[in-house]
Design goal:
Pfam families: ADH_Fe_C (PF25137), Fe-ADH (PF00465)
CATH superfamily of the largest domain: Dehydroquinate synthase-like - alpha domain
Shape: globular
Strand order of the largest sheet: 1-8-5-4-2-3
Keywords: Oxidoreductase
CATH class of the largest domain: Mainly Alpha
Domain Alcohol dehydrogenase iron-type/glycerol dehydrogenase GldA: 12-173
Number of helices: 15
Radius of gyration: 20 Å
Structural class: alpha/beta
CATH architecture of the largest domain: Up-down Bundle
Protein name: Iron-containing alcohol dehydrogenase
Number of strands: 10
Domain Fe-containing alcohol dehydrogenase-like C-terminal: 208-406
Order of helices and strands: EHEHEHEHHEEEEHHHHEEHHHHHH
Largest sheet: 6 strands, parallel
Length: 407
């Protein structure tokens, strides 16, 4: 695209927002002609009645059971086990409940249930192609209904990640291959942003996940795939989050505060994942390098990396700093380009600090400065870097210097 022409093809999920909104799941299943729903979640959340019961009641007689094998690692084996449940119980809808891992596993299940193949064949094919092979275009995949309880901003996306290990015990985390899958059929059919369910999530978990969702809004603005529509939603999303996120760590978060934050996450991720582009980029590439090599949650990796990555980015390219400054309401017509960049970086660091998240890489257990070359190589090779701003030429030495800054 250029300034006067662009193509934007996007068919997001229907968004249902409000307190107690999961009570409408059954009517939404009925509207789509679906009658056999399976909840996909993790073992911890499945034992929390205040979360499970509203969703179970909301699905009503259409609920056939719960698959609670999800783990943060999103292993292919987990999805394969879930796909067997789908086939055995004739499931036609998956209700992904919880964090981003539940949604990613639900998407993998949908793919694997679409073709009945041995797990080893699927794994070998992923290793060969570095992506999960999808059923033919004419095959309808199992519908996905997303019920997030965290804030990474992954529910309006057609993309999922997968860890390719059939026997992860004893393997070093960094040695387990990662892959992905993307297809318009994996966009959730509906998303339920239930404020009462978000309120059950501990604040530290909400804060960590929110940093990931917040960074998506920032990256939507400087990605090379930006367009006027995503500019508008991302600016609004960043504004809502910058204003609202500090409330997460307050003594109590009101329903109005929570609604503002969840609306911000929805706006920030709107258009993130489309058939021809995925718009998360440089910050996410650094986050991947850190989170895939150490026992640290993705949002924490983003908290440590984001201000330093933005500082590096603004040294290399414009990075649409004026638009970012507008989103943070720190734009000053008399400021120099460097002052504008500094104001944006300061606003991101301020948000991280308000969420009470770590700011130094050395705080992550197992990190050593001798690891920087390996981490930098992972960033340079990360496929998300391809969506970075035009003109950015990431070099090994430059990326190592960024890790040095965040140390």
């Amino acid at each position: 695209m250029n300034g006067n022409s662009f193509t934007f093809e996007y068919e997001p999920a229907a968004i249902h927002h409000g307190p107690g909104i999961v009570a409408t799941i059954e009517s939404e299943l009925d509207r789509h002609g679906l009658s056999r729903a399976l909840i996909v979640t993790d073992g911890t959340l499945s034992e929390v009645p205040v979360v499970m019961e509203p969703v179970e009641n909301g699905a009503g007689d259409r609920l056939v059971g719960t698959f609670d094998g999800v783990t943060p690692e999103k292993y292919l084996q987990t999805a394969y086990d879930g796909a067997q449940r789908v086939r055995e119980e004739d499931v036609d809808a998956l209700i992904a409940l919880g964090g981003g891992s539940s949604l990613d596993i639900a998407k993998q299940i949908s793919v694997l249930a679409g073709h009945d193949r041995p797990l080893e064949d699927v794994a070998d094919e992923i290793l060969d192609r570095e992506t999960m092979v999808l059923p033919d275009e004419g095959v309808e995949l199992t519908d996905i209904f997303a019920v997030p309880t965290t804030l990474p901003g992954a529910d309006l996306s057609q993309v999922a990640g997968v860890k390719l290990s059939l026997d992860p015990d004893g393997q070093d985390k960094s040695e387990i291959p990662s892959a992905g899958v993307s297809d318009s059929r994996l966009m959730p059919t509906a998303v339920f942003h239930d404020l009462e369910l978000f309120a059950t999530t501990p604040e530290r978990i909400l804060a960590r996940s929110a940093m990931n969702g917040f960074d998506k809004g920032i990256e939507m603005l400087y990605t090379r795939h930006h367009n006027p529509i995503t500019d508008g939603t991302a600016v609004r999303g960043v504004q809502l989050l910058y204003e609202g996120l500090p409330a997460i760590t307050a003594d109590s978060t009101s329903e109005d505060d929570l609604s503002r934050i969840v609306r911000g996450i929805a706006a920030a991720q709107y258009g993130l994942s489309t058939p021809n582009a995925y718009r998360a980029s440089v910050v996410h590439s650094f986050g991947h390098a850190i989170a895939r090599n150490y026992e640290v949650q993705q949002g924490v990796a983003h908290a440590i990396a984001a201000p330093h990555v933005l500082g590096y980015l603004f040294e290399q390219v414009d990075g649409r700093r004026d638009l970012l400054a507008e989103a943070f309401r720190v734009r000053d017509e008399t400021a120099t380009a460097e002052e504008t960049a500094d104001a944006v970086v300061d606003a991101v660091a301020e948000t991280r600090d308000a969420l009470e998240l770590p700011s130094e890489l050395r705080s992550v257990e197992g990190t050593e400065r001798s690891h920087f070359p390996e981490l930098a190589q992972a960033v340079v090779e990360d496929p998300f870097m391809e969506a970075g701003p035009r003109g950015l030429e990431a070099t090994q030495s430059d990326i190592e210097a960024v890790f040095e800054r965040m140390w």
